[in-house]
Task: structure prediction
Amino acid sequence: MAVSGLLMLGYLVAHVAGNLKVFFGPEEFNAYGHWLRVMGAPVLHHAWALWLVRIVLLAAVVAHAVCAYQLSRRDVRARPTAYVHRRRRASYATRTMRWGGIILALFIVWHILDLTTGTVHPGGFEEGKPYQNVVDTFSTWYGNVIYIVAMLAVGLHVRHGFWSAAQTLGVGNARRERLLRAAANTLALVLTAGFVSVPVAVMTGVVS
Amino acid sequence: MRLTLRVWRQRNADTPGAMSTYDVDGISADMSFLEMLDTLNEDLILRGEDPVAFDHDCREGICGACSLVINGDAHGPERTTTCQLHMRSFHDGDTIDVEPWRASAFPVVKDLVVDRSAFDRVIQAGGYITAPTGAAPEAHASPVPKADADSAFEHAECIGCGACVAACPNGSAMLFTSAKVNHLNVLPQGSPERETRVLDMVAQMDAEGFGGCTLTGECATACPKGIPLPSISAMNKEWLRARRKAARG
Result:
């Protein structure tokens, strides 16, 4: 869970940085989208680097989901009889890891169908014109709702996930506790704020 | 104080249990929670009913025998053992739910008593040192840095009560196992078995059917001895180190 999670987290940081290029106008954003396809050229063929990233990410998502399933099954088996007196346990981010993960998996499917393949895209999807595609998606109310809810889920997931990954890999100790918590919170906040800024910009007309 | 108790009653491991409601009167705020249960049991015996079975031994908070989930909290609302929990933590007229530790690795024996031999088997897998015993060795023969001694002592405080497992939403025994591993692994006396200890104890913990750790932190919050949550990370570090060393041969 820790290794696959950190791989995806690394990707998210690159992804949010790329998304923020939308604020520099259509030319620069579309050029960035094009660069993603010629990354590694001329050593690599067109889109090879991009497909390499996609394959690694797919492997990480599958590994993460399989681990989560096995871990959850084991945890359910370990407590066959529930307590009669129930009370709220742990923080919100911690309690929502499982459902948050499922929401994120569903979101990723929609996100790819919307902005990579264009299958469920609301406007006239045009490959190579990511700027206009993004504006189209965030001009629909449901596009905004799905996206913003998912990005809040990302923040919560990262908040518990990053810190937990550190514990799993044995990096955590009493002295680093505050540092790790702060890093997890900062990452969660930066990712959520960065991603959400795009639909907000479209809604307010900053990006159009 | 007058209280309403809802207590888990279960004749034995094979019969299903249920919560039973009892009224207890004349409880003093200075009584411990176990003395309150003694009062209930005296009452039940006088009425010719089966007294509530619960584990207890030293009643000083050092043996780890008592094990009750009180209103959903392992050892109740105070951060201490059930025997050191006093009735002043409750109010007149309260309804209190009393349940046993819940984990498949800790099957219920009767009422509130659970079988915690799974912990003993985890200890047997590596919670010892192979140094020859006999007369006490000269104290300065193997110097221990102060920080290591403190860490060992902190982890040695674990009394093996199982509150960590009871409080964990996953029924995981990571805090217990990490306390036992770290206690010996930081000391020179424990270093000959440093790798086999962590690998064997973790393997036994898994074999006993405890759940996996998702780092909710409930264990460290419930622990009456204050075993800190980063102990789990320290054990993971030891485990990864041992695996790497084993892979190198």
